[in-house]
Amino acid sequence: MHIGLIGGIGVAATIVYYQRLTAAVDRLGGKLDLTISHGDIHTLIRNNLADDRAPQAEIFARQIDSLKGAGCDCVALTSLGAHYCVEEMNALSSLPVISGVAPLDDYFAAQGIRRVGLLGTRVVMRTRVYGQLHQTSAVALDEEIDTLGQTYQDMAVSGSCTAGQRSQMLDAGRRMVDELGAEAIVLAGTDLNLAFDNQDPGYTVIDALDVHVSVLADLAAGRCSLDEVAMTK
């Protein structure tokens, strides 16, 4: 199956999607057929913060049309934050959209995790992943959402992470475990690997990107069909 990715939102996340998807399909013994359409993170941030859904959905719809023209069978967003306008995008999409959010709830439940702490964009943390976690409760550092969200945004735009930003994110995860009872910290922002890769924070970390990549890899390798995966369309 030919996978389409809307990338560039941000660039670091897109690179990790490419790396991990390639490795996952290779482990499954499949052949990856992939096309990436580059998006503009600055436009996405402006629309996300203003909750302007229709304009961003129209941008994504044009990219999806291009991916369909390139032969893609389905499409995925390389940003959980970009899922804020997914309903509007679905109404315009010419391809099935493979959700990066929908598989998370089942994954947490399968792991026996009852409460997770969230790090990601302001909207993802504030809405508890768009209210789509039904089998698992979610917590966030509510009084620090704007500060943590800004730090995450800065990381996503620059494609890098300073020592101070890393310390801030690792500490936020620790406090959600110690003070809010989180059994695992979810990297609900696809650029957070910049802060957490090669780190041992002393608590369980689940990268939502890996859950999404696993679904895409199964599709790419022919291990499942579109009818069997959690889609937003």
From TrEMBL:
The lineage of its organism: Bacteria, Pseudomonadati, Pseudomonadota, Alphaproteobacteria, Rhodobacterales. PANTHER family: ASPARTATE-GLUTAMATE RACEMASE FAMILY, GLUTAMATE RACEMASE. This is Aspartate/glutamate racemase family protein. The keyword Ligase does not apply. InterPro entries: Asp/Glu/hydantoin_racemase, Asp/Glu_race. Keywords: Isomerase. The keyword Isomerase applies.
